[in-house]
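Appendix C reproduces, verbatim, an entry submitted by the partner laboratory led by Prof. M.T., so that reviewers can inspect both the input and the predicted structure.
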Amino acid sequence: MIHDNSARRKEPFVTLVCGALPEQLLESELFGHEKNAFTGAAAMRPGHLERAAGGTLFLDEIGDIPSAVQAKLLRFVEERTFTRLGGHVDLHVDLRLITATHRQLRAEVKAGRFREDLYYRLNVLEIELPPLAERKEDIPTLSAFLLARLSPGRELSLGSDAARTLSDYNWPGNVRELRNALEHAATVCSGKTIRPHHLPSAIFRPLDAAGTPEAGMDRALQQCVAARLAAGATYKQIYSGMESTILKHLLHHFDHKPTILARVLKMNRATLLKKRRDLGLDT
């Protein structure tokens, strides 16, 4: 967005994921190399700095680059000059540099893993993107956008119950995890609306939500309702089945003595006996 709305928008936008490359390959990709600079370098090859000349270079996972590469990058940030691997000529490039990282760079500086001078040279304008867990109000909009890209032409939407399930989850993997969860749901959903049981089990039944009985009951009810709906049950049938289950457990808790149950829970005894009879729980 920064590039597209700048005076450089007609020039190249070049990206490099720094965390995915070993040191020598990263250095070569970033600064380029001369012919015979190392084994296999059969010809001169410009790096990402030269490719982005006049435009924008986006370095993703800047916090993962090795210290030797950090020193060479610092020189470029300060002087806008660099030397290709195996070369002896200083090259000058004008570009906008944007970097991103999942690490806390201040902590990395204190730990000695990231150069302090490079950190302060890069940190001209900082844009902090909060984790998904801190902006759950974005989940419906993000989900609609991702579903449109994952399933073009299907008119696939997120049900309100599934949206609540997504909002209850903590999202340690942020938007990438949300995308994977929606891709899973889109794969197993045969209709037009994603329901909670279409989501991965880690989200539909999160392991860290096992704490309260209410949480367990809510998950069980979600599964029960989803299964009954899939079987074509009506609201009356679903409600009747749940009421029967609740009353059965209550009678068991009070040793199958409806008089005591009615007194403790302040129920009309005649109404309770009728419900027990209508629900087939007399025996």
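The chain has a mean pLDDT of 88. Additional entries are available on request from the coordinating office.
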